[in-house]
Specification:
The structure holds two protein chains of two kinds.
Chain A (H helix, E strand, L loop, with lengths): L17 H7 L3 H20 L5 H18 L9 H21 L43 H4 L2 H12 L3 H12 L4 H8 L3 H23 L1
Chain B lengths: L2 H4 L3 H6 L4 H13 L1 H17 L10 H21 L1
Helix pairs in contact in B: 3-4
């Protein structure tokens, strides 16, 4: 039996993440701030799997309840954040499976992931020698107030939500949640190479949307 | 290297996974190509913006209330069982 976390008995404990310690000791503020910090990444991770935001919030809630239920058994084989996002991902996926039995349109979500090959830039932008016909726009002239505006953020959210599921998962975990590639490969059970291909396709899709939008 | 190929290596470049030989050729090309430099800059900005999309999404008051109650409940039960 591992040593229990009695207050004051910290010396006999192995080293835990401070945040995990705080949760286990009942620190409400630590819990709330963790919920707030992971809310955006969790929502994005879940959104593409379910129909709308209400269901997504519901999945987020269920994820946290599952986290609490299993927190004492969490063995820190990954970071707390990775573990929690993994739980949210599993719940979102199983919710999608349940819904796809009833909703015909969700079968559409399964398309697209096969599209992992081929160029990510419109080939008509290059001449016969493979050189740019016209140079891509420089975004350094776009004022930050536009580049980082609420509207731009909303556009990017929408673009992320409509990516093929496997690409979206990689992009959200890497670029929204800020996990490193090793953690993401572990969570999704994919190779480093596969992860990079998905990440590349996802990032270029978002870039393409932004290029249109900022033109 | 030509632009058409260079754009497909952008993520490998940003991830630092290009072989030394490819990295040298990539950087060589970028140094002399304004188009690919602009494209790389677009990719970097895309990452920067994507990294921020989660910020402006606050937890709704009702969700926070329910989760806090669940946390309190979890902790009081847990205390009792230890």
């Amino acid at each position: 039996m591992p040593a229990r976390n009695y207050p004051g008995a910290g010396v006999t404990e192995r080293l835990h993440e401070p945040e995990l310690q705080a949760l286990r000791s009942g620190d409400e503020q630590a819990f709330q701030s963790l919920v707030a910090r992971l809310h955006g990444p969790m929502l994005r991770l879940v959104m593409g799997h379910v129909r709308d935001r209400d269901i997504a919030e519901d999945v987020v809630q269920e994820s946290w309840l599952t986290v609490l239920k299993n927190l004492d058994r969490f063995e820190e084989r990954s970071t707390l954040k990775t573990w929690i996002l993994g739980i949210a991902l599993n719940i979102a996926r199983s919710r999608r499976r349940k819904e796809s039995r009833v909703l015909t349109f969700s079968s559409l979500w399964h398309f697209g992931d096969r599209e992992q090959r081929g160029p990510t830039v419109d080939q008509s932008r290059f001449d016969a020698t493979g050189t740019w016909k016209a140079i891509p726009d420089s975004w350094s002239n776009v004022p930050e107030s536009r580049l980082l505006s609420q509207e731009t953020m909303q556009r990017v959210r929408e673009a992320v939500d409509t990516l093929p599921p496997m690409q979206r998962e990689v992009l959200v975990l890497r670029d929204v949640a800020g996990m490193d590639s090793e953690e993401v490969c572990g969570m999704l059970g994919i190779s480093a190479e596969n992860q990079r291909v998905r990440l590349h396709r996802a990032r270029t899709a978002v870039r393409r949307m932004l290029e249109e939008y900022l033109r | 290297m030509i632009c058409r190929d260079v754009v497909e290596l952008m993520t490998d470049y940003l991830e630092g996974t290009l072989s030394p030989a490819d990295l040298a050729r990539f950087e060589d090309h970028i140094a002399g190509c304004g188009g690919c430099r602009a494209y790389l800059e677009q990719m970097r900005k895309t990452l920067e913006i994507t990294g921020r999309i989660a910020r402006a999404e606050p937890v709704s008051a009702s969700l926070e209330r329910e989760l806090t109650a669940a946390f309190r409940n979890w902790h009081s039960k847990r205390d009792g069982s230890l």
